[in-house]
Amino acid sequence: MCTTRIPIEDFNELTTFSYDYMTTSSLDCDLDIYNWTSGSWEQLQSNTGTSYITGSKILTSDYLSDQYNVQFRFQTETIEEDFDIRIDQLVVTYSKFLKKELT
């Protein structure tokens, strides 16, 4: 499981969580994101092959903790062989708007 925190002083609007990953073995490897409102994990993607899986998720307040954390994990069933997860990107993109008074 991995957690990333969006600094509150930099946070205006959280936009997307983007991912690009693969496994070196054909197995069911899920990428999940935590929904803080429901208190449960939601599957974003299930990779059953050996090619890269690319996608994104528009994030809402359901996916932010009170401390502005976003949590995601990779999981798979118990298997009898070794494999690697190759991650090209796991990115949280957010916008920061600077307030400027008009004079």
Report what the structure shows.
The chain has 103 residues and is mostly beta strands. The protein has one domain. It is 0% helix and 53% strand. It is built from no helices and seven strands. The protein has strands at 2-5, 13-23, 29-35, 40-47, 53-58, 69-76, 85-95. It has a four-stranded antiparallel β-sheet with strand order 1-6-3-4, with no helix packed on it. A three-stranded antiparallel β-sheet has the order 5-2-7, with no helix packed on it. A hairpin with a 4-residue loop joins strand 3 (29-35) and strand 4 (40-47). The relative contact order is 0.38.
How would you briefly describe this protein structure?
This protein is mostly beta strands and 103 residues long. It has strands spanning 2-5, 13-23, 29-35, 40-47, 53-58, 69-76, 85-95.
Uncertain spans, ≥5 residues at pLDDT below 50?
none
Global structural class: mainly beta
β-strand percent reads: over 45%
Report the order of strands and helices. Answer: EEEEEEE
Mean pLDDT score: 79
Widest beta sheet: strand line-up: 1-6-3-4
Q: If helices are DSSP runs of H or I spanning 4 or more residues, what is the number of helices? A: 0
* Record field, number of beta strands: 7
The separation of the N and C termini measures: 48 Å
Q: Roughly how much helix do the residues carry, as a percent range?
A: under 10%
Q: Main sheet? A: 4 strands, antiparallel
What integer value in Å does the Rg equal?
16 Å
Based on CA inertia axes, which overall geometry fits?
globular
- Kindly give the count of domains: 1
